[in-house]
Specification:
single chain; about 850 residues; mainly beta; 22-stranded antiparallel beta barrel; five-stranded mixed β-sheet; about 50% strand; globular
Length: about 850
């Protein structure tokens, strides 16, 4: 029996101060589109929320003012200062498609992770197995293929990259957003200023810097309960210490977060064998099988993080900022359930846990010197990361359709799981150590003249070593894929794939005001990369079997790329701007492992994909995108209404695609992808304390995969939702002179998208299956006392939606009888209190 969700109360503390150079906006700009079919339901929810707000307000028994002052009725929307162009500007004055969320807004809305923030941003999608397992994508540019992400990810000036060859994708850390100054989400290619891996966009987390003159301390504690899970707790603390007035200060931020799991891991004995016609197409009745062991909350996770920043103002012009960031996470298992029977559970024949661990340590040193007309900045960073994951697939290996048990391949009955001829337990361990050193030397003009510019040099040295070790104790029950005789080693699959990528770049960007209203911006980046890769596969389940390791040898690639950008912006008035942008981006190419081209399984897969060279491609080319965008940014009704919108077209050439010959991953290049899309973001002060947000994004994508692309539907890209968006209503009302009541209701919608399945026992490549769209509703209400403390109650995922986020076929061996579906956190309720010392 599953447990019910529990309410919890929490105590905590968080700050409201902001970087002096970057004033904080009083709004949260979540962006993403709402499905029209949800509009009636949303109206009812909004009406109910308003009634709840009034009830809570009365329950406070505080004599609130009966009339809204003229000042509050006419309040205008504030601005967020951003550095998306590596020069300070506001969102409304920056002629690109950008969403920025201030640290105060993150706190007020209870947004604690990049995953929850991105869910409300138009044109942004992600997939995540848990903490530190998040892959970000923008404007339909998926990164399932290739060895590099399509979205850049920065913590301050530290470029963080995901592992090159991990089975779970190009995942980045998802740090807690406590004590951030702001989050910037830059949509569209950012290749000029942010380099390769930013062809879809860039996400930047900007932290608060040490305050040189004031002691500050804040804390936060959030307690909650999750349906089907249990008690969750999150605690944050920030201390700012001015060591030498106006000269030296230290800022320390600590985070602890425990989230209870809601997926049960169930070990059944005896475990039912697969059925169907042919045998293996239907999973056995695992739901009614005798339970040997049950582990509730098998996807629970614990994270810790610390960020330490020292600011030394050596002179009026020179500042030095060293920093350290360290985070660790441990998860008992992935947040995914078995598609059959479809309950929030994972069933196993053997007691094999699937823990994930991840740790990252980043060091950086920023040195800035201000000359009379420009600033010189040096950003040096080094980070190391180590991820590991256990993957279990005993049931999949026993399935007769897989054809890897010795008896089943010789016309004998399937041996089953137990007894002297049983297949026994099977699992693998994946390790992903990686590290990177980077240096950027940047010059940026200062002043308010007609011309402004940025120029710099960049270097990075990235290393990743993906390895996998598969173990099968009852190996004699399996067939060696090379000899077709019983296996003679417990190692069913061992892999070793080191990758190095060195990049050198020079970039520049200049803006000139042709008139007071018309500005032209021209930029370019010259990027050279050197890539080295090798792969060696062995074991009885590898491509050639245990006797013949499949080794690629050293694959060395080099390329030089030129990425120009052109932007034209016209300011009709201080409150209305239109812009047009042509920009480019690219990703480096890479190498593939060696696979066979003959035999019953591999011969059919090779023939199906139409290669005539007699071998699979050993490398794949860089891919590029050419983007065209038209946009406008408007402030209306005395700046109480903001409307930002953009139209774009992406011409993605030679896209890196992930094919699955014989269920194995292979990177190839398609011909092209055409992406047409639009984003809109509206924010309105309605008066009487109400503020309304609506954001929407739509895109249409068409893939021309070329002669070797056979995954159907052949014109679809995976993990891309054409429609997405958010509608939100905020309310704020003074309660006397010292208290303020606040409330927020939001509904985020993500439309249907395609994910890989292996549903046909006779297919060689898998197919794309459409996952249903879903919407998530969050409600939050609380009281704030001046700038000292606040208390808020919240319910996330109010309707308890169990969304299907991604199809995760069993990574060790996909099979047609079931797959695992990544899902979101069920309804979670709790209380959040913050305090500022």
């Amino acid at each position: 029996m599953r447990r019910s969700w529990m309410d919890a109360i929490s105590f905590g503390v968080q700050q409201n101060d902001a970087c002096e150079a970057c004033p904080i906006d009083k709004r949260l700009r979540l962006c993403e589109p709402i499905s029209l079919r949800n509009s009636k339901r949303l109206s009812l929810v909004v009406a109910g929320a308003l009634a709840g707000v009034l009830s809570v307000s009365l329950a406070l028994k505080v004599n609130a003012e009966s009339a809204v002052t003229a000042e509050s009725a006419g309040a205008s929307l504030d601005e967020i200062v951003v550095t998306a162009s590596k020069r300070a500007s506001t969102v409304q004055d920056t002629p690109i498609s950008i969403s920025a969320v201030s640290g105060n807004d993150l706190l007020a809305r209870g947004v604690t992770s990049l995953a929850s923030l991105a869910q409300g941003t138009p044109g942004v999608s992600l997939k995540s197995e848990g903490p530190s397992q998040t892959e970000i994508e923008m404007r339909g540019m998926t990164s399932s293929g290739g060895n590099s992400a399509t979205v850049g990810f920065y913590l301050d000036d530290i470029p963080l990259a995901g592992p090159a060859s991990a089975q779970n994708g190009h995942v980045v850390i998802d740090p807690d957003l406590y004590d951030l100054n702001r989050v910037e989400i830059l949509r569209g290619p950012q290749g000029t200023l942010f380099g390769s891996g930013s062809m879809g966009g860039t996400v930047r987390l900007i932290s608060n810097q040490p305050n040189l003159s004031q002691f500050q301390s804040t804390a936060q504690s959030v307690l909650s309960g999750t349906d089907g899970g249990g008690f969750n707790h999150k605690d944050n603390l920030m201390i700012n210490l001015p060591l030498i007035d106006d000269t030296l200060a230290l800022r320390v931020v600590g985070t602890e977060n425990y989230t209870s799991g809601w997926i049960d891991r169930i070990v059944a004995d005896p475990f039912p064998l697969a059925a169907g016609n042919p045998v293996g197409t239907v999973r056995g009745d695992v739901q009614d099988a005798p339970i040997q062991k049950q582990y509730p909350g098998s996807n629970a996770y614990q994270t810790y993080a610390v960020r330490v920043t020292l600011l030394w103002k050596a002179t009026e012009n020179l500042s030095v900022t060293p920093s350290l960031f360290h985070t660790t996470s441990t998860q008992n298992g992935i947040s995914a359930y078995d598609s059959a029977p479809g309950t929030q559970a994972h069933y196993q024949p053997f007691d094999i846990a699937e823990p994930l661990t991840d740790s990252l340590t980043a060091y950086s040193l920023n040195v800035n010197y201000s000359f009379p007309t420009f600033d010189l900045t040096s950003s040096t960073a080094r980070w190391t990361r180590n991820s590991s994951q256990v993957e279990e697939a005993s049931e999949a290996f026993n399935n007769p359709l897989e054809g890897i048990t010795y008896a089943s391949n010789n016309g004998l009955p399937n041996p089953g799981y137990y007894g002297p001829t049983g297949t026994g337990p099977e699992h693998g361990m994946e390790d992903d150590p990686s590290h990177q050193f980077s240096e950027e030397l940047r010059l940026a003009s200062t002043g308010n003249g007609r011309a402004s510019w940025v120029a710099g040099l960049y270097f990075s040295d990235f290393y990743s070593l993906w390895s996998f070790r598969g173990t099968s104790p009852n190996y004699s029950a399996y067939m060696d894929l090379g000899t077709l005789a019983p296996a003679t080693t417990p190692n069913w699959f061992d892999a070793y794939s080191p990758t190095t990528l060195k990049q050198y770049a020079a970039f520049g960007d200049a803006t000139y005001a042709l008139t007071d209203a018309l500005k032209v911006d021209v930029g370019a980046r010259v990027n050279h990369y050197d890539y080295r890769f090798s792969s060696c596969l062995s074991g009885w389940g590898s491509a050639h079997g245990a006797a013949t390791p499949s080794c690629s040898g050293l694959i060395a690639l080099s390329s030089t790329n030129f990425n120009p950008k052109f932007n034209l912006a016209y300011t009709f008035s201080p409150d209305l701007m239109a812009y047009a942008t042509v920009s480019t981006g690219f990703r480096p190419g890479g190498g593939n492992a060696v696979y066979p081209t003959t035999g019953a399984a591999w011969g059919g897969a090779f023939q199906q994909q139409g290669y005539t060279s007699g071998k699979w491609p050993s490398t794949y080319e860089p891919d590029r995108v050419l983007s065209y965008e038209l946009g406008e940014k408007a402030r209306l009704s005395e700046r109480r209404l903001t409307v930002n919108a953009s139209l774009y077209y992406e011409d993605w050439r030679h896209p890196q695609l992930e094919a699955y010959p014989n269920d194995w991953a292979l990177n190839i290049n398609g011909n092209s992808v055409s992406i047409y899309g639009a984003d809109i973001d509206v924010l309105a002060e309605l008066g009487a304390g109400f503020q309304f947000e609506v954001a929407a994004g739509y895109l249409y994508e068409w893939l021309e995969g070329g002669p070797h692309w056979v995954i159907t539907p052949v014109h679809k890209m995976p993990e891309v939702a054409p429609e997405s968006g958010t509608v939100a209503l905020n309310y704020s009302r003074p309660l006397g002179d010292s208290y303020t009541f606040t409330a927020r209701l939001e509904n985020s919608y993500t439309g249907p998208r395609y994910s890989i399945f292996f549903s046909n026992p006779y297919e060689f490549t898998g197919t794309y299956r459409q996952l249903p769209g879903y919407d998530l509703i969050n409600v939050r209400a609380g009281v704030k006392f001046l700038d000292k403390w606040s208390a808020a109650a919240f319910v996330n995922n109010l309707t308890n939606k169990h969304a299907q986020l991604e199809s995760m076929f069993t990574e060790n061996e996909p099979q047609p009888s079931f797959t695992r579906i990544e899902t979101n956190q069920p309804i979670t309720a709790g209380v959040d209190l913050t305090y500022r010392f």
